[in-house]
Structure to design on (205 residues):
């Protein structure tokens, strides 16, 4: 597929890796090899995929006993998809059916349903059952266009509620993978018993 940009090939294999890494008969090692040998993707770019899996696994670490519970409700990237895929009628695009985690948090905030252990308030400033009207969200590490679209939809569909979204940057898939590459590259080598560790060993042959 010479007409397909290398970045698109990498994105497709990255999505495949996130979706099928737990299946023992997945074709991920073959796809990684094909990216280099037939896809003209540099090996250092291909190595981002096992780093992405390592990052994914880090989000699923169990909470520390006695501390804050997981703000992002550690689950697979694809968990909850069954509830979201309820047919294509009325859906703008099949690729926009995914809902960002921020949407769940924002809707719970608007409805006064946030868990106080996860979202504590400053003393005397209110409690999680209060229903705010003016909301400022700032994402350290960057926001995505999908999150910006979701916030715009919430503003349009929630009379009396005004949400402002900001962040340190605006991400697309390329900038996100670059940050994962930089961050995970400084971590200790993953155990060979993990999928990410096995893939990194294979890619680095």
């Amino acid at each position: 597929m010479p007409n397909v940009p290398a970045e698109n090939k990498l994105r497709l294999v990255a999505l495949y890796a996130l979706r099928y890494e737990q299946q023992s008969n997945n074709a991920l090692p073959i796809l990684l090899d094909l990216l280099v040998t037939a896809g003209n993707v540099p090996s250092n770019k291909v190595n981002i995929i096992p780093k992405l899996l390592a990052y994914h696994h880090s989000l699923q670490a169990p909470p520390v006993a006695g501390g804050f519970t997981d703000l992002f409700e550690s689950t697979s990237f694809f968990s909850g998809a069954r509830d979201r895929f309820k047919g294509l009628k009325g859906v703008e695009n099949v690729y926009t059916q995914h809902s960002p985690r921020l949407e769940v948090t924002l809707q719970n905030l608007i409805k006064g349903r946030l868990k106080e252990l996860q979202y504590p308030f400053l003393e005397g400033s209110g409690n999680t059952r209060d229903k705010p009207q003016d909301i400022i969200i700032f994402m350290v590490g960057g926001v995505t266009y999908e999150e910006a679209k979701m916030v715009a939809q919430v503003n349009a569909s929630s009379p009396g509620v005004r949400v402002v979204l900001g962040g340190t940057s605006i991400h697309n898939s390329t900038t996100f993978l670059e940050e994962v590459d930089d961050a995970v590259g400084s971590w200790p080598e993953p155990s060979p018993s993990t999928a990410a560790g096995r893939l990194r060993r294979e890619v680095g042959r």
Observations:
- The chain is about 45% helix and 10% strand.
